[in-house]
Every structure is written in C-alpha cells, then in structure tokens.
Amino acid sequence: MTDPAGHLVPQPAVPAAGELWAYRARGQDPLVQVAVVRLGVKTPQRVLVRFVDEEFEGQQDWVPPARLKVPWSGVDEYVRGNGAGTRCCDPRLASHSPRSWLRVLSSTC
Questions:
Q1: Is residue 13 part of a domain?
Q2: pLDDT given at position 77
Q3: What is the pTM of this model?
C-alpha cells in the first residue's frame, strides 16, 4: 500500500497461529513472550495465546490483539524505538534485553 505521494506505507503485522509475539497487558508491565495458538472468530476480536516462559506453567488466555505489540523477533528493536515504552524501572534489568528479563528476575528473587 502507498500513500498519495507514492511512498510505501508499512502495514501493521497481523498475528498468525504458531508465531511468537511480545505481549504486554498494561503499560507498566514488562513485555513477555507468547505463542499464538489461534485467532478468535467472534467480536470483539481475541487471540488465544500460550505464555512461553516456564514461570507461567503453560497458561493460555484469550487476549485482545492490541496487547500483542510486535513479533518476538523484533522485540529488541521495538524497545529501542519506543524508548521508555518498556516502562521498566528495575535496575536489575537495565543492562539486559527484554528477551532475558524473566530469566534475570527469577534468578535474583
């Protein structure tokens, strides 16, 4: 898709079953990795996700697609591009990428 000037306009990514995504329930929460299980068919739209980290013990939940922020492969770039968007104030996490936050937190608790 292009804008009136002919420039390519990026389209938002749409989750698909089997993909890994960065999930955030609330603005102050850290990003966590989820696997998309399937897309819902009812309205309002929902996505069934499985929380990947062992801390969640295989928990699954139907969530609004807006909570899936970016494919997991792009989480580091997303965090860099959003600056304070991580809403992280824990000093233990300052030198780590979001991909390793759960590991860091669980090892220091």
A1: no
A2: 85
A3: 0.66
Q: State the residue range of the domain holding 36.
A: 20-108
DSSP state of 2: B
Is residue 7 included in any domain, yes or no? no
Half-sphere exposure of 34 (CA within 13 A, CB side): 29
Task: Give domain status of residue 6, yes or no.
Answer: no
Q: What Å distances lie between residue 55 and 52, 74, 105, CA to CA?
A: 8, 22, 11
Question: Contact, 52 vs 34, CB < 8 A?
Answer: yes
Residue pair 45/65 in contact (Cβ under 8 Å)? The answer is yes
> Rounded distance, CA 84 to CA 75, Å?
14
43-66 pLDDT tens trace = 889 999 999 998 889 899 999 999
Residue 44, token pair as written in the block: 């309002």
Q: Exposure string (b/e) for 16-29, b if CB count within 10 Å is 16 or more?
A: eeeebbbbbeeeee
In a domain? residue 68: yes
